[in-house]
């Protein structure tokens, strides 16, 4: 398969526009367009490159980006440089999904929730500054065609609804100069016409696609339109999730349940409260920044990783705060990626890495 074909599927899995600004997602190394096999892993380490070579895979799809910050030298002095050198020498492409999949409604945190059997799940921290709004004006007989083209380009999706728009009628006026070629009226003629105003929202990364649909399907020579940035939260994109376990549990019983389900080597936690655990917030990876969000959402427990000593105080006796381990909180992500790719690409080598790249060991 061509690399470009596969990356299209990977962008369906985890749209790059969903990633956090600090992140480094997408294609990290590439020296060939002809892909012979895909190895899916958690961390694209040097030993993973060896595994890819042995299994004749020249595309490694990883969760964490091996290239996170810039490299000033590539001398092989550390694990990042050694992995990159081996990938380049052996024509192995590396592609990372990281926070693009973290923010997806079916991504890392939904996988986390599903592993625990949580129901009634929703995003814990909806993504902000991601929704834009288009306003345009056209003739009544052009409105349906134009609206449908905007919908096809991805505009008009709100939560669980699609093809959403607001339409209002009014009077538009214009007069063309000597260089104009008006569809309605003549040059130098003042035209008053019944028009329809169409308003639709769209995810900001779709702007070029939406504007192309607008210009290609609008009846006017000069298209009048405005685009606004909104402060609306995107309820289906964002970090973390919150849901409910099937039956309430005492804190100790709940942590044993989590330890078994997520195969944890150990769990660090805040002090137990008397209340049973029913509503659970999760955030795969480093999630200390979301403690207040979990409390505000009414969670009885918040499961995440990489908590520092003083951050356990932030539980404020309002919820059970548990650090289950970074790798453990994301452990089923690579399985999800493999399942997704196998569904999209049949009769092709898509292999789950056999290596456990968790750098944290338990005694």
From TrEMBL:
<feature type="binding site">
    <location>
        <position position="102"/>
    </location>
    <ligand>
        <name>a divalent metal cation 1</name>
    </ligand>
</feature>
<feature type="binding site">
    <location>
        <position position="330"/>
    </location>
    <ligand>
        <name>a divalent metal cation 1</name>
    </ligand>
</feature>
<dbReference type="InterPro" id="IPR036069">
    <property type="entry name" value="DUF34/NIF3_sf"/>
</dbReference>
<comment type="subunit">
    <text>Homohexamer.</text>
</comment>
<comment type="similarity">
    <text>Belongs to the GTP cyclohydrolase I type 2/NIF3 family.</text>
</comment>
<dbReference type="GO" id="GO:0005737">
    <property type="term" value="C:cytoplasm"/>
</dbReference>
<dbReference type="GO" id="GO:0046872">
    <property type="term" value="F:metal ion binding"/>
</dbReference>
<feature type="binding site">
    <location>
        <position position="64"/>
    </location>
    <ligand>
        <name>a divalent metal cation 2</name>
    </ligand>
</feature>
<dbReference type="InterPro" id="IPR015867">
    <property type="entry name" value="N-reg_PII/ATP_PRibTrfase_C"/>
</dbReference>
<keyword id="KW-0479">Metal-binding</keyword>
<dbReference type="InterPro" id="IPR002678">
    <property type="entry name" value="DUF34/NIF3"/>
</dbReference>
<protein>
    <recommendedName>
        <fullName>GTP cyclohydrolase 1 type 2 homolog</fullName>
    </recommendedName>
</protein>
<dbReference type="Pfam" id="PF01784">
    <property type="entry name" value="DUF34_NIF3"/>
</dbReference>
<feature type="binding site">
    <location>
        <position position="326"/>
    </location>
    <ligand>
        <name>a divalent metal cation 1</name>
    </ligand>
</feature>
<dbReference type="InterPro" id="IPR017221">
    <property type="entry name" value="DUF34/NIF3_bac"/>
</dbReference>
């Amino acid at each position: 398969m061509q690399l470009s074909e596969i990356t299209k599927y990977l962008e369906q899995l985890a749209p790059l526009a969903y990633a956090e600004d600090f992140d480094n997602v997408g294609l990290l190394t590439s020296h060939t367009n002809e892909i012979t096999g895909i190895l899916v892993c958690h961390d694209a380490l040097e030993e993973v490159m060896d595994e890819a070579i042995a299994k004749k895979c020249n595309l490694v799809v990883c969760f964490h980006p091996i290239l996170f910050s810039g490299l000033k030298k590539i001398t092989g002095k550390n694990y990042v440089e050694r992995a990159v050198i081996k990938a380049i020498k052996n024509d192995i492409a590396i592609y990372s999904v990281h926070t693009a999949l973290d923010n997806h409604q079916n991504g890392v945190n939904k996988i986390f929730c599903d592993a625990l059997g949580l129901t009634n799940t929703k995003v814990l921290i909806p993504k902000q500054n991601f929704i834009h709004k288009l306003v345009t004006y056209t003739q009544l007989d052009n409105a349906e065609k134009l609206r449908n083209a905007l919908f096809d380009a991805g505009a008009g999706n709100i939560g669980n609804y699609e093809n959403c728009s607001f339409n209002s009628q009014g009077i538009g006026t214009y007069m063309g100069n000597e260089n104009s070629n008006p569809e309605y009226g003549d040059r130098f003629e003042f035209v008053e016409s019944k028009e329809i105003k169409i308003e639709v929202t769209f995810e900001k990364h779709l702007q070029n696609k939406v504007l192309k649909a607008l210009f290609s399907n609008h009846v006017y020579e000069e298209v009048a339109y405005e685009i606004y940035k909104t402060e609306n939260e995107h309820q289906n994109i964002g970090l973390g999730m919150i849901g409910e376990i099937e039956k309430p549990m005492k804190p100790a019983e709940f942590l044993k349940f989590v330890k078994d389900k997520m195969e944890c080597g150990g769990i660090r936690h805040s002090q137990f409260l008397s209340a049973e655990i029913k509503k659970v917030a999760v955030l795969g990876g480093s999630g200390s920044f979301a403690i207040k969000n979990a409390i505000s959402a009414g969670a009885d427990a918040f499961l995440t990783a990489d908590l520092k000593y003083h951050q356990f105080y932030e539980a404020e006796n309002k919820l059970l705060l548990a650090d289950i381990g970074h790798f453990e909180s994301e452990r089923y992500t690579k399985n999800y990626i493999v399942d997704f790719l196998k569904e999209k690409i049949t009769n092709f080598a898509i292999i789950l890495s056999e290596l456990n790249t968790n750098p944290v060991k338990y005694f």
